[in-house]
Specification:
alpha+beta; Transferase(Phosphotransferase), domain 1; Jelly Rolls; 6-stranded antiparallel β-sheet
Length: 578
């Protein structure tokens, strides 16, 4: 979809994406009132005949804890713009998180929002985030929809870099097929932005806001199929290049250079899959100039879906194979001994060996030989006696106490920290909040970015240090990319004092839906310092690891919260024993 200049499109993204300072500044420079999300000079026309109608009705002044229909408890306002607000809420009847859009019943777009929500709910396609309820009650209109805590917005994925070719192929394939099915039922989206596209923990792509997002913002189009097709083309272009295919920056992405027009993706970034790049150009509106002029432009999601199906299937990348270390042939010679390296590992080394001294041939030499032999026999006898005595003593202790302790002081068994540790790379992370009450979702990347000044933070609580009065615990879940032998975790903390207690567990995925009680613990510990070292008794295989806090120290007020029991995670490093 072409870049829009109206506040409804630029100022706030769908379902909880508040504008950044840069976006707000851009909106203001375009004549947009960023305070209430209205175009300063009235409705402004969009490309392809779209119009955004402004509304003078203010958003309802509700607060956290307000309950709708004695069932939906509002918890966090994630968007407040253009006369409506969006919330994360709790369905107390089914004990699950949901999303809620709210507006006054006399809002200019209230009727169209209700109609769009009910039409979307009738579609029932699992590729779309489902509308669960659409109600007019007590001078309010509200729409309840699914909340997917384990899903990640395309906006967040692109912030880390362009997608791999197979991921981009799956994105355009699944989204175009879903939108083709929606248009066959007479439903359009008209707000297919990166924040409307979600990837679940299982790798499926979901679309949220079908018909509803456009109705909330008063967006219409005379050519809805062309508008949605162009929007899919823009999503594919952004996925391949990490650039927005228009001159203006949008959705955290840099736009194309001004004055050059729309250029092919492989001219923006090297290594772009040529077939996918041509597909993006065929979907985007560019005056008929496609990457391959012999191929016609795609003007409907159905045409785009067929074009994707006609492409050779792009397979996922082969898993990275790490070749085993090459072992050099070691030649053992008489007189060469194992030498201890600085890391404590004993290796056999082939070193030049001096020739042995000539054998003793005299009578004195023979006497010395017999003397040495006698001493060796005596030493062996003494050693055998001591060994037997030790075994008998251990057997007695075992019989008396009923326990056995084979750990010797000073050995690696007593202190596994002495073993050399190799850091494991963290591929992704998410907040783990099984109670549906997150702490700092946007701050998750700061927990492992190696920047000591940035950190993921918790709320501040009045009672502590144990969290039992409020919740079972809180934390983060990390993806190591593949199954690893996790032996230790080093956690840099923001606050010291009192005590911080943490445990690391194996997890099945990045979702918060799995109970912590069903997970296998790896290691736990407590510290009064601002660093916590957790060491497992034995390595545990895991790809996903949960860091779970159950106690936090008391700290003073900061720029984020007042004084209370709280903590911040500045850097997490998982390791394996080499």
């Amino acid at each position: 979809m072409a870049e829009r200049s109206t506040a409804a499109v630029d100022v706030a993204d769908n379902d909880g994406n508040e504008p950044s300072a840069a976006q707000a500044a851009q909106a203001t420079s375009d004549g947009v009132d960023t305070q209430n999300g209205r175009a300063a000079d009235g409705p402004m026309p969009d490309k392809d005949g779209e119009r955004t109608k402004t509304a003078s009705t203010a958003a309802p002044e509700l607060h956290s804890g307000h309950k709708l229909a004695r069932r939906y408890r509002l918890e966090e306002c994630v968007t407040r713009v253009d006369g409506f607000s969006s919330w994360r809420a709790m369905d107390e009847k089914l004990r699950r998180a949901v999303g809620v859009h709210l507006m006054p019943a006399d809002h200019a777009r209230a009727r169209s929002v209700l109609a769009a929500a009910r039409s979307s709910a009738l579609l029932g396609d699992p590729r779309f985030v489902q509308v669960l309820d659409a109600v007019e009650e007590n001078d309010l209109v509200y729409v309840v929809h699914e909340w997917l805590p384990d899903a990640t917005e395309l906006t967040a994925l692109l912030a880390a870099g362009p997608l791999e070719a197979h991921e981009a192929y799956q994105l355009v394939s699944q989204v175009s097929q879903a939108m083709a099915a929606a248009h066959r039922e007479g439903l359009a989206h008209l707000r297919l932005t990166p924040s409307a596209i979600l990837r679940t923990s299982t790798g499926q792509w979901r679309i949220r806001g079908l018909a509803v997002n456009a109705a909330l913002r008063g967006i219409t189009s005379e050519t809805p199929q062309r508008a949605d097709t162009e929007a899919i083309g823009a999503l594919l272009y952004a996925a391949l290049t990490q650039r927005w295919p228009y001159e203006s920056d949008a959705y955290g992405l840099t736009g194309l250079p001004k004055g050059v027009g729309l250029i092919a993706p492989d001219q923006v970034r090297a290594g772009v899959h040529r077939g996918l790049g041509e597909l993006a150009m065929r979907a985007l509106a560019n005056d008929g100039a496609t990457a391959s002029r012999q191929e016609p432009a795609c003007t409907t999601p159905e045409e785009l879906s067929k074009a994707v199906s006609a492409m050779p299937r792009i397979r996922p990348p082969e898993p990275a194979f790490t070749a085993p270390p090459e072992y050099q042939h070691t030649t053992y010679q008489q007189g060469s001994y194992g030498r201890t390296t600085p890391s404590g590992v004993t290796t056999a080394q082939s070193l030049p060996v001096a020739p042995p001294p000539p054998p003793l041939q005299s009578r004195t030499g023979r006497a010395l030989k017999w003397g040495v032999a006698a001493l060796l026999i005596a030493a062996l006898g003494l050693g055998s006696w001591q060994l037997a005595d030790t075994l008998l003593e251990r057997g007695t202790q075992k019989g008396n106490s009923g326990t056995s302790n084979n750990t010797k002081p000073g050995t690696d068994d007593e202190n596994p920290k002495q073993a050399e540790l190799t850091p494991l790379p963290i591929k992704a992370a998410a907040e783990y909040y099984p109670d549906a009450k997150p702490q700092d979702v946007d701050g998750v990347p700061k927990s492992y970015d190696s920047d000591p000044e940035s950190f993921w933070r918790t709320y501040s609580y009045e009672d502590g240090p144990d969290l039992g009065a409020y919740k079972e615990g809180l934390g983060l879940v990390f993806d190591l990319g593949e199954e690893q032998d996790v032996s230790a975790a080093s956690i840099a903390l923001r606050y010291s004092g009192d005590h911080t207690t943490a445990t690391i567990y194996t997890a099945p995925n990045l979702s918060s839906s799995t109970s912590i009680k069903s997970m296998q613990p790896i290691a736990n510990g407590t510290t009064k310092d601002n660093k916590l070292e957790l060491v497992a008794a034995t390595p545990v295989k895991a790809r996903y690891v949960v860091l779970w806090l159950t106690a936090m120290p008391k700290a003073g007020a900061s720029e984020y919260s007042g004084a209370g029991y709280k903590q911040g995670i500045s850097n997490v490093v998982f390791s394996k024993r080499s």
